[in-house]
Amino acid sequence: MTDPTPRFWEIFFAVYEALPRQGPGSRACTARALGLCSGLPPDPAILDLGCGVGGQTLHLAELTAGSIVAIDSHAPSIARLTATLAERGLASRIQAIVGDMANPKQPPGSFDLVWSEGALYNIGIAKALRIGHDLLRPGGYLAFTDAVWRTENPPPAVRASFEDYPTMGRADDVIATIQASELELIDHFTLPDAAWWDDFYTPMEQRIDALHRTYAQDAEALAILEQMAEEPAMHRRSSQHYAYEFFVTRRP
């Protein structure tokens, strides 16, 4: 595949930045994973890596009384999250920062909970586990989601759609990586199909439809929108081949 053009990224972000979240997940899944993190302080220090526009960040704020540092490399997403925090009166509890997950520049051992939904593949799970371990206090948790295969030989078109996940394996492969790290696995579970649709693919399809009207006379933009619409369409056809898995780990 050729590298995406600047015009592709323009349309891509016109779609994605308007969504409640930028990947599969839900408040219920966040709450379930958080429930596996027993023994957290009443007001935990939380780091959200790859926060996007903050869908899960806001859920963490609702579900805990903690303070949150939310980091993402895409400045417009952080700008949108910052505006949302101001609107909701959460700026005193949540600090939104433009930064690099691979080098978050936070003090070692300063967090009770490191969280990441659908983002750690960007730096690789093994490296993310090392970073999470070093950022956590003893007894703290790293909770994250990652895409995994559910079948041995997914169709070539399905495999190609995950080409941005070069090390994508099965849930057992992620578990083996965790077991080889300095963290211990607490539990894991598969996100239900509703977590793909309610706050992600359904709003995505609605946004794509709206932008079809905006770009009705722009053939290049319409072609990019059609390309993006293939993602939820493929999920309807082929979701039996892949899933998102939530993993909860702990620093001993």
UniProtKB/TrEMBL annotation:
CDD domains assigned to the protein according to its UniProt record, in alphabetical order: AdoMet_MTases
InterPro entries: Erg6_SMT_methyltransf, Methyltransf_25, SAM-dependent_MTases_sf
Methyltransferase recorded as keyword: yes
Domain Methyltransferase: 46-140
Gene3D superfamilies: Vaccinia Virus protein VP39
Keyword terms, alphabetized: Methyltransferase, Transferase
GO molecular function: methyltransferase activity
GO biological process, one term: methylation
Protein name: Class I SAM-dependent methyltransferase
Source organism: Thiorhodococcus minor
Upper classification of the organism: Bacteria, Pseudomonadati, Pseudomonadota, Gammaproteobacteria, Chromatiales
